[in-house]
Design a protein that fits this description.
The protein is α+β, with helices and mostly antiparallel strands. The chain has seven helices and six strands; from the N terminus they run E-E-H-E-H-H-H-E-E-H-H-H-E. It has one domain.
Amino acid sequence: MGAGPRRVALPGFGRRTVHPFPFSDQRTLTRTLGIPVTTRVCFDSAAVTAALFGLRSAGVLRVLGRLGASAALASASARLRVGGDRFVIHACATDSDGGRVASAVTGRQECRATGVVTAQVVEQLLRQPPPAGVWHIDQVVAADEFLRNLHQHDLTIHDEI
């Protein structure tokens, strides 16, 4: 989880620097899978990514938060339109022997894609309800079927990138 930035090949964007970001899945997957997980992020604009993470590492964002400027900064960033509607989700796994596998999903309109994923999960859960309790998607959804169905929604899987 404490790993630093990495250079990653992202389909449609080339090699980009991705930065660690505390999405909740890194903690959940680390706990449920028993392996260290790091989540990273970048934006379609390399300049915006460099500026944001430069401010973050310099502590400027933390200072702005202490000054009560977080709400104003969030509001301003919501109105700022930089970049396009394309996105890439990249996943990479490395085993203890150094074997590596990576793949990515690309598409447009990230919010729509989130809705597609939610609908796909609900469909699978209705077909095969899990036992009572709290579950995470990776524990109750068949990944192969799930990923195969994404292409129907203009989402492209890039295996072994």
